[in-house]
Amino acid sequence: MHRSSLIVIVALAFTCEHAARSADPQPKSAAASPVETLSVDLGGGVTMKFAKIPAGKFKMGVPEDAPDRDKQDLPVTEVTIAKPFWMGITEVTQAQFETVMGENPSKIVRDPQYPVETVTPKQVDEFCKKISAKLNKTARMPTEAEWEYAARAGSDGLGGAKLADVAWFQGNSDKKPHPVATKAANAWGLHDMIGNINEWVRGEKWIGYRGACWRTVEKKSKPTHREGHGELHSDPYGGFRVLVEAE
Questions:
Q1: What pLDDT, on a 0 to 100 scale, did the predictor assign at position 189?
Q2: For residues 94 and 98, what is the distance between their CA atoms, to the nearest angstrom?
Q3: 36 with 12: CB under 8 angstroms?
Q4: Among positive and negative, which fits the CA dihedral 58, 61, 65, 68?
Q5: The whole model's pTM is what?
Q6: Please, what is the angle between helix 94-101 and helix 121-135, to 10°?
Q7: DSSP letter at 143?
Q8: 91-to-4, 69, 160, 167, 247 alpha-carbon distances in Å
Q9: Which residues pair with 226 in a beta bridge?
Q10: Which helix (H) or strand (E) holds 130?
Q11: Is the distance from CB of 51 to CB of 207 less than 8 angstroms?
Q12: From CA 97, how far away is CA 123, in angstroms rounded?
């Protein structure tokens, strides 16, 4: 079916459109190689971009004897990601959410380039259904395994960079979220996987936040950080990122 409002572009590299909005010089990206991307036109000059995440294996969770282990951390388990998938390069912005849903529930800072927050899992699912219809592909909330795999990007998510280079957390956020993509991307081209806004994910018999947010202390700002919540929960610290299944 022809969809005049939809433009899909696959490229071998991408440029962060909003990097210039940062007050500080843009930090060097941790990305080690060009990333295959997908761009979707949502209308009104608003787009969403996705990076292709390769299939592979990784060790998910935190060792039982780790000194900074949290009670909600998962035990170490080897996980296989059997198929590649597309992951949102940034957290869903207020501009993207409002364009698709016709509303903006955000409470802390209301600005088009900031991540949308105060969203429930139901709202996330409704947003993803609309993206699915535009793409004619399945868009959804990531699973815990998919999210942590993408956040780690083959290592610990930092790729040799300092936490302050890739994340907004309690130590550098000035007690507020920031526009998306104003910190360096990880090795797979994803921004803000650590810090800025918590992100909804689904696990086995569990739903909650991953990745920490702008008010999270440094030692907990890592890809393994998780907070369990219910299906009806929403707060000003939680947003989301969209996963699109590859064919």
A1: 96
A2: 6
A3: yes
A4: positive
A5: 0.86
A6: 70
A7: B
A8: 25, 26, 22, 13, 23
A9: 210
A10: helix 121-135
A11: no
A12: 10
Question: Residues of 93-118 as b/e, b for ≥16 C-beta within 10 angstroms?
Answer: bbbbbbbbbeebbbebeebbbbbbbb
pLDDT digits (tens, 9 = 90+) for 7-49: 343 333 333 333 333 333 334 444 445 689 999 999 999 999 9
Tokens (6 digits) for 115: 């991540």
Task: Please give the distance of CA 105 from its chain centroid, rounded to a whole number.
Answer: 18
Residue with tokens 């780690």: 152
Q: How far apart are CA 160 and CA 140, in angstroms?
A: 30
Residue 158 has pLDDT above 80, yes or no: yes
CA dihedral 202, 204, 205, 210 (to 10 degrees): -40
- DSSP class of 113: T
Strand, coil or helix: 98:
helix
Q: Which two tokens stand for residue 105?
A: 């529930």
Structure confidence by residue, pLDDT tens digits, 179-205: 999 999 999 999 999 999 999 999 988
Buried b (16+ CB within 10 A) or exposed e, 56-89: eebebbbeeeeeeeeeebeeeeebebeeebbbbb
Angle at 149 between CA 139 and CA 123, to 5 degrees: 35
